[in-house]
Amino acid sequence: MSNLNYDAIQVGDALPPLELPPVDRKMLALFAGASGDHNAVHIDIDYARRAGMPDVFAHGMLSMAWLGRLLTQWVDQRQLRQFGVRFVGITHLGHRIACTGRVVEKFEAAGEKRLRVEIQTANQYGEPRVVGDAVIALQ
Questions:
Q1: Mean pLDDT of all residues belonging to the chain
Q2: Is the pLDDT of residue 94 over 60?
Q3: Once rounded to an integer, what is the mean pLDDT over residues 49-70?
Q4: Which of 18, 92, 94, 130 is geometrically suited to a Cys-Cys bond with 121, CB 3.0 to 4.6 A?
């Protein structure tokens, strides 16, 4: 996390990317325990197959948590004013997820200098899994 200067940031600037290890069963079990989301489609292969999936897959909120980490490695959590996402694809076992973001707008609101950033997760094939945006207040 760094102390960013509003005047030095330009529309189009990229956030430092966050690369994650391949999604595996242990990761999903740990997230289920931490989040309290024990939906069987994320942890029980037989249940996932009965639901028409080839195997278990990652919780959508795990991907949102990774995007939260992308943002909070760039700015302090207290600077976040908005954070929202849309789930556009399934993150399967073995996917290597990269979280990226870029500044798309600079503006002032409520007496603060703010940035709007577009963020996303994508798998190793470049396919977006989660897309969204966040508003960040800077000094």
A1: 96
A2: yes
A3: 97
A4: 130
pLDDT, average across residues 1-21: 92
What letters, b where the CB count within 10 A reaches 16 and e where it falls short, cover 99-129?
bbbebeebeeeeeebbbbbebbbbbeeeeeb
Report d(CA 74, CA 44) in Å as an integer. 35
Pull the structure tokens for residue 103: 């500044």
Quote the tokens at residue 131.
């897309």
Mean pLDDT of 16-35: 97
- Tell me, what DSSP letter sits at residue 126? S
Q: Which two tokens stand for residue 30?
A: 């740990």
* CA neighbor of 92 nearest in space, from 60, 131, 68: 60
Local confidence band at 139 (pLDDT 50, 70, 90 cut-offs): confident
Q: CATH class for domain 10-23+60-137?
A: alpha beta
**C-alpha–C-alpha distance, residues 121 and 87, integer Å:** 10
Domain-wise residue ranges, the chain: 10-23+60-137
Q: What DSSP string runs through 39-96?
A: -GGGT-HHHHHHTT-SS-B--HHHHHHHHHHHHHTTS-GGGEEEEEEEE-S--BTT--
